[in-house]
């Protein structure tokens, strides 16, 4: 199982890399917009400095046509390093580009997946990760668990090395459901991670244990 952070916020990345085994940082133009238009590649290099060389960063292309996607991918790889995952929307042009990029040794994340057929074609095109958009699928009455499970079954049956990184979460139940359905990875916003650990019952349980220890031994430490 892999947990990635769906954010380019430097403070959030600094915070969460201390607390979770961070398997990646994912971005898209909307996530980038939240950082207020700072020079993009400079910002990605700051993220790289924060997470170190072993944590993959997934950076999305802007172009929508085949040649443009290849050009964007080359620029991203040149600016952000060989280990960067190129996020390519799973369109017709995107699928053609994924095949070329894989032939050229790129790491590729097929993104904007709403349907099983997109995922199946991206597997066959050679994508390293598939990013189904869980909440957006639910908004459209598409069953994300069924799609994730179908993709997972094909990956297992065909012994593909491709992984599913489920994305677009608006609540924690969706995250658990994606993992249960077969997603090997999830990318989650800092706000959702915070919500998952901020439940008052958690803090109360920890406080109650501390009080009981102190009442028993009249000290707050083990020895
Ligand atoms: C992954 O990086 C996806 O682009 C992202 O999770 C999409 O999330 P959204 O549906 O909130 O835009």
Quick structural overview:
The chain is α/β, with parallel strands linked by helices. The chain is 54% helix and 17% strand. Helix 1 runs parallel beside helix 3.
Structure explained in plain terms:
The chain has helices at about 10-20, 30-35, 40-50, 65-80, 90-105, 115-125, 135-140, 145-155, 170-180, 190-195, 200-215, and strands at about 1-5, 20-25, 55-60, 85-90, 105-115, 130, 165, 185-190. It is globular and about 70 Å long. With about 220 residues, the protein is an alpha/beta fold. Helix 4 (about 65-80) packs across helix 5. It has an eight-stranded parallel beta barrel with strand order 1-2-3-4-5-6-7-8, surrounded by eight helices. The chain has two domains: about 1-190, Aldolase class I (TIM Barrel, Alpha-Beta Barrel), CATH 3.20.20; about 200-223. The protein is built from eleven helices and eight strands. About 55% of the residues lie in helices and about 15% in strands. Erythose-4-phosphate binds near residues 111, 135, 167 and 187.
How does the SSE layout of this entry go?
Elements: E1 2-5, H1 10-19, E2 22-26, H2 29-33, H3 40-51, E3 57-60, H4 66-80, E4 85-89, H5 92-103, E5 107-113, H6 116-125, E6 129-132, H7 134-139, H8 144-157, E7 163-166, H9 172-181, E8 185-188, H10 190-197, H11 200-217
Bound molecules: erythose-4-phosphate (E4P).
Erythose-4-phosphate binds at residues 6, 26, 28, 30, 111, 131, 133, 135-136, 167-168, 187.
């Amino acid at each position: 199982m892999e947990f990635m952070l769906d954010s380019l916020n430097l403070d959030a990345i600094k915070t969460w890399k201390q607390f979770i085994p961070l398997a990646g940082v994912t971005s898209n133009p909307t996530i980038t917009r939240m950082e207020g238009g700072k020079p993009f590649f400079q910002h990605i290099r700051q993220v790289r400095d924060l997470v170190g060389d072993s944590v993959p960063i997934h950076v999305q292309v802007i172009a929508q046509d085949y040649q443009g996607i290849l050009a964007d991918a080359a620029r991203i790889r040149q600016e952000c390093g060989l280990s960067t995952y190129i996020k390519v929307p799973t369109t017709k042009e995107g699928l053609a580009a994924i095949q070329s990029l894989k032939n050229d040794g790129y790491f590729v994340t097929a993104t904007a997946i709403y349907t099983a057929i997109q995922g199946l074609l991206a597997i066959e095109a050679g994508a390293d990760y598939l990013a189904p958009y869980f909440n957006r699928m639910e908004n459209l009455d598409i069953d994300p668990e069924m799609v994730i499970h179908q993709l997972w079954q094909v990956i297992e049956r065909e012994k593909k090395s491709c992984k599913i990184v489920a994305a677009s979460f608006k609540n924690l139940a969706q995250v658990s459901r994606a993992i249960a359905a077969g997603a090997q990875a999830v990318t989650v916003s800092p706000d959702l991670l915070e919500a998952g650990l901020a439940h008052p019952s958690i803090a109360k349980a920890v406080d109650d244990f501390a009080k009981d220890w102190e009442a028993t031994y009249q000290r707050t430490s083990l020895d």
